[in-house]
Amino acid sequence: MLEGFTWFRQSAYRYQDDGLVLYIDPWEAEGPEADVILITHAHADHYQPDEIERLRGDGTQLVAPHDIARELSGEVTPVAPGDSVEVAGVRIQVVPAYNTAEERLEAHPKANNWVGYVLTLGDRTYYHAGDTDHVPELDSVRANVSFLPIGGTYTMEAEEAGGLARAIGPDLAVPMHYGFVVGSPADADRFAEAAKPVTVRTMDPVRPFERS
Fold first, then answer.
1. Is 9 within 8 Å of 211 (Cβ atoms)?
2. How far is residue 109's CA from residue 119's CA, in Å, rounded to a whole number?
């Protein structure tokens, strides 16, 4: 189910298959020119304008929350939680991403309307959570594969992310947003334990982990 996906670092992915090249929150990403680039929110480890320019071509379509979309040129689709759009043949359900833990309320306020995405790619659905805590609206997300942040500090820690994985019930849960800015590779083991009975599969990042 992860065929076609490449994890670069943090929450940066490329999906390449069936004539489609799609990037999510690219950071030190590499590969062919993008058909679609999705941005979840405005923090520098997710939104890098220079990275977007490097990966885009004349026909690249961008999807981003409204605050970012205002800064971008070209073919841009502004989105907010609850939206459903289709871009370059990809069906996208937009879901909320925000913090509820008191110690990180200012990192990702609900009022910012930052987002995660549920993508239909082929005959499967993939949820990229962006930066979020386990907020009530996410219990209704359904996807074959869920990419969830586990590093803590700015997002859920491993145990909370495991609870969200159980609530969603995907075929696979994949940890992200650890081992670079926050968290360590060991968090993936904690997440796998907390997510049981959901199957967890870790991916190897292209960029070496920076935190032990």
1. no
2. 24
Q: How many CB atoms lie within 10 A of CB 113?
A: 19
End-to-end Cα spacing for the chain: 28
| CA neighbor of 188 nearest in space, from 162, 155, 153, 154 | 162
User: Which secondary-structure segment (H or E) carries 119?
Assistant: strand 115-121
Q: What are the tens digits of pLDDT across the range 155-195? A: 999 999 999 999 999 999 999 999 999 999 999 999 999 99
Tokens of 175: 């940890």
Per-residue pLDDT tens digits for 124-141: 999 999 999 999 999 999
CA distance 134 to 138: 7
Q: CA 159, CA 192: separation in Å to the nearest integer?
A: 9
Residue 23: beta bridge partners? 14, 37
Q: Which residue in the block uniquely carries the two structure tokens 């209704």?
A: 140
Tokens standing for residue 102:
């008191």
